[in-house]
Predict the structure.
Amino acid sequence: MSDKNCLEGSVCPPCSSAPISSVKNYEKLYPELLKSKKIISIVTLLLSVLYVKLVIFSIFEFYYKWTFGFFFLAFFAIVESSAKLLNQKASKESRFWAAIMFAIPIGNLCTENHFYLFPWIELLTHLAAAQFALTRMGAAAEHQTGALVGLDVLRAWFILPFSNFLKNIKVLFFGIKKPKLHLNAKGFLWTALGVVLALPICVWAFSTLLEADEMFASSMEIIIPWLRQWNIFKWLFDHINPIMLFFYGFFWCWFYGLIYGSFHQKDNTNSTKTEEIYKLADKLRIVPKQTTSTVFILLCGLYLVFFVTQLQYFTMGFAGQLPQQYTAAEYAREGFFELVRIVAVNLIVLAVGAKFSAIPLRQNKWLKIWGSVLCSCNILFAVIAFSKLWLYIERFGITSKRVLAIYAVCIIMIWSILAIATLFRPFKAVFYAVHIAVVLFCIFCFVDWNTIEGHFAPRHMDSIQYSQMMH
């Protein structure tokens, strides 16, 4: 293979015309890379143990916020070290996702927001961590967050980890010869491995036999007090019981599959697949502009009639008044779900029109105008719904659902503004939409919602009603 196929500073030729997995005796040709992969396989085993112990089995513990943050610190260190071992340069995008991955747990530690933002803190931190690993290894579909961000999520969470699920075992034991009959160093290691695998089964079998046979239990009276004194059974059951071993093994394969797959599929397949996707999208532009314009006009006309006939009803929220047939709870909830349904339809219609219209929306004057009107309706719905929500909060206080509703309204308004802007001037709207959404969530993590809740004393209801509303 020629030097032209090698990236600068790389230990292997990732831009080879043949897939890396098809190169004969690949590991033998690149011993430095194999050594790095063995190290990564070992540290990802440690990472899987930390994830199981500090995240999964600690989620209901009082110290969970600390262990949750510590795990992602360890995740960053291991992914960063793995990237350096494989000579991968860090991009600005990877630094951004690393910052998000740290900011959310730090905000969770500094405030008591876990009640208000659960389970979104966990979900978005995991998403940021997976995106960090993908961008740090250079495997993002567009080398940064963009229109194909959904593909990046699928690749990071499912495609790459599970398509390379057992590669950690193969890499770790590659080159180890079969042990000879006489006892040597390698034979001892294989024996030790057998002890480790059999020990949890033996512990379980021993405990079961003690319960099943009293004579056996009485014959073991000499060693049982000693085992209880040192809590050996409890320690073994807590750390290496079959259930824990399954989780360790599963997440070990998953973490290594993510890093291994990101490294090996970061090369020319990214740009090629991205181009193919965009070419396929261009072939779908078959809807005439008259059809797209008609859909936009009819929807905008319907919303105009709706706003005019319901103007007084909608503006009552700004004045702190309620329609006679509504309670504050009904008024706010109905307004918010109206917003979600209508905005979802508007954004889907706009996205479908942008992708299927024979003429791109920004290249036609009237398509731009009606698309902008559609997004303006979204903004108007967002403002009105926020007024309803604010009326609800003033009367009944802050809860987790209301905090998330505030976040949703803000995101809807921001995304609608970005959609209008991209109709008149092309720019990376999806890039900014995703980045603004995660940054805004980080800001919400640092806001002390407990203190804010204290400023909104519940009114117009007794303590029992307030307790019911909070739940």
In short: The two ends are 66 Å apart (CA to CA). Confidence is low (pLDDT under 50) at residues 1-26, 177-183, 460-471. Residues 323 and 351 are 35 Å apart (CA to CA). DSSP finds 22 helices and no strands in the chain.
